[in-house]
Amino acid sequence: xxxxxxxxxxxxxxxxxxxxxxxxxxxxxxxxxxxxxxxxxxxxxxxxxxxxxxxxxxxxxxxxxxxxx
Length: 69
Fold this sequence. Notes:
Shape: elongated
Structural class: alpha+beta
């Protein structure tokens, strides 16, 4: 059997087959950085900044991510 045929495909670092939105937050007093990975967006992370402590803007961004999916 050829070597290439016997190799198993390595798992991807990021699972894009899940129907989930992955979000990370970097919080400071002046600004909050939101990065996200959504289904159908490939493996490209999106970045968005809101003013620090602006919870309504954070929730609005979450709602927008969900609407797009």
